[in-house]
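Journal club prep — side note

Before the paper discussion, L.F. wants everyone to see what a predicted structure for a comparable chain looks like in token form. Sequence:
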Amino acid sequence: MDIVYRLGEATVAEVVKRIPDEPGYHPIRVAMANLEEKGLLRHRREGKRYVFSPVIPEDKAKRSALGHLLKTFFSDSPSQAILTLLDMSGSDLSERDLDEIRSWIEESRSEQT
């Protein structure tokens, strides 16, 4: 999906080329067909090729995927997910990153009151 969003539209071959270690045409074709079945992609025919494009905006797709991730692995707890991300990042977070996170928290708190 990320590749299709980046390109705006893509054939299976174009997606395969952009994946590290090129996994092969068939698994990507099956994955894209599944994404189309789920309503995330649509295609149009260009000669013998299918050109796929996203159905929903990228930000909505990200929210949906994150919601599924939260429900599946974090008991629907955003704070647990954030704590896990912070723990994984460890010392890789710069002062700027931490300031940005702090700012988002403060903004979120002010919106709740």
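L.F.'s comment for the group: The two ends are 37 Å apart (CA to CA). Keep this in mind when we get to the figures.
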